[in-house]
Amino acid sequence: MSRPLSRIDGLTGARRHFRYFDYVMAAFVAILLLSNLIGASKLANIGGVTFGAGILFFPVSYVIGDVLTEVYGYANARRCVWAGFFAMIFMAFMSFVVVAMPPDSGWTGQAAYEAVFGSTWRIVLASLTAFWAGEFVNSFVLAKMKLMTGGKHLWMRTIGSTVVGQAADSALFYPIAFLGTWTHEQVLTVMVTNWGMKVLWEAVLTPVTYVVVGWLKKREGVEVFDDNLDFSPFAKAKSV
């Protein structure tokens, strides 16, 4: 028979050392970078529906973000969002530098390299802004809903936070990236369509979220409720 979980507040959770937190954080950053690096440049078409291929994997970072907030608390999720944000900045900087370097006369891959990695400044700015805002909104809503529900109805909290977080993400990304080059109707259509697909994907992955959250909570032995925490994205948890 498993032992009951010990309830701790958000500040205690921020100070606590967890067994598996580093692995979850590494998975979050890795999926974030790979979904932007590999999937962002390709348009796919399945059943007559055209979409960015990265949409199949980028929402997984939101699922892991839900796991981080649910299991480890908002403060630890905040650390991961900042880690992902700065990792994306470095990825963008490295892409700009590598693409701009003069190719060797015998190398014929420059055009393909530019097509895949040569994102414009607007796309980079849109990606960084949308990710930062969307992830923080997602984590904030999930943490607050956990307090409101007393830790019940995980499915409601994960899907509800994704609805709001992905809405913030899409509402920022598409206008910043494409307004002026796409028509207003195109921006709105793609924005709503991709938002709906991301929320649907989150709902489909809900059983996986339950399994991962349950497994991690059992091994960490605690239940974090963020009822003693500064929710500012710029706040720092005081060290013991």
From TrEMBL:
Pfam families: Vut_1. Keywords: Cell inner membrane, Cell membrane, Membrane, Transmembrane, Transmembrane helix, Transport. GO terms for cellular component: plasma membrane. GO terms for molecular function: transmembrane transporter activity. It is a multi-pass membrane protein. The chain crosses the membrane at residues 20-40, 46-68, 80-101, 121-142, 154-179, 199-216. It is found in: Cell inner membrane. NCBIfam families: queuosine precursor transporter (TIGR00697). HAMAP family: Q_prec_transport. Belongs to the vitamin uptake transporter (VUT/ECF) (TC 2.A.88) family. Q precursor transporter subfamily. Involved in the import of queuosine (Q) precursors, required for Q precursor salvage. This is Probable queuosine precursor transporter. It comes from Novosphingobium resinovorum.
